[in-house]
Amino acid sequence: MTTSPEPTQLSATLAPNYTIPIVLIAIAIPLAAIQIWVGAIVGIFGIFLAIQTAIIKLEFTPTTLNVYRGSKVIRTFPYSEWSNWEIFWQPVPILFYFKEVNSIHFLPIIFDAQMLRTCLESHCPDRHQS
């Protein structure tokens, strides 16, 4: 009889989530009516995040978090080097933070937030910051 592998033995690639870029672009329109430069900056940032959402992918493997630009791996983060992680602002998750031994990383939530949490809890549950 064979058993199915543990969740930590599977790889998962997170689906993109365009909520933050769309909200920023939507906020930029009335801001531009009030203050053109503020609206332009917020709108440009929203467009930048929309482009990043389309091209950046996160893949959770059994031992690492891989960051892809298109089909090319641009960074690899071994879980063994993580100190802790947190997803900020639970009503509407907007920021993912994780700390490695020698560096800190912040990423906007441009991925499926629920799947991100599920993968984090599966791959490094003992490193969740309370």
Indicate how many domains the architecture comprises.
Answer: 1
Could you tell me how far the N terminus lies from the C terminus, measured between alpha carbons in angstroms? 39 Å
Outline: elongated
Strand order of the largest sheet: 1-2-3-4
The average pLDDT is 90
The CATH topology comes to PH-domain like
CATH class: Mainly Beta
Which consecutive residue ranges, at least 5 long each, have pLDDT under 50?
1-8
What share of the residues does DSSP label as strand, in percent?
25-35%
- Return the string of H and E elements: EHHEEEEEEH
Give a summary of the structure in a few sentences.
This protein has 130 residues and is an alpha+beta fold.
Give your account of this protein's structure.
With 130 residues, the chain is an alpha+beta fold. It has one domain (7-127): PH-domain like. It has three helices and seven strands, in the order βααββββββα. It has helices spanning 19-34, 36-55, 113-123; strands at residues 12-13, 56-60, 64-69, 72-78, 82-88, 95-100, 104-108. Strands 1-2-3-4 form a four-stranded antiparallel sheet. The radius of gyration is 17 Å and the shape is elongated. The chain starts with 11 loop residues before the first strand and ends in a 7-residue tail after the last helix.
